[in-house]
Amino acid sequence: MTFSMPATAALPASPARLPRAYAWVVFALTFGLMLSDYLSRQVIGAVIPALKADWGLLDSQLAMLVSVVSLVVGILTVPMSLVADRWGRVKSITLMAFVWCLATIACGLAQTHGQLLWARAFVGLGEAAYGAAGAALLAHVFPARQRAAVLGAFLSASLFGSVLGVVLGGAVAAHSGWRMAFFVVGAPGLLLALIYPFVVRDYKTVELTPDVPRSGAAPKRLRLAQIAREVFAARSGNFTYLASGLQMAMPAMLIAWLPTYFSRYHDVDVKKAGMMAGVAVLASGIGMIFGGGLADRLSRNHPRRRTLVPAAYSVISALVLSTAFALPPGPLGLGLIFLGALFAAAHGGCSGAIICDVTHPGVRATVTATVALANNLIGLAPGPLIVGVLSDVIGLKLALTLTPALALAAAVFFVLASHNYEADAARTRARGTPEAA
Question: Which keywords describe this protein according to UniProt (predicted)?
Answer without folding.
Answer: Membrane, Transmembrane, Transmembrane helix, Transport
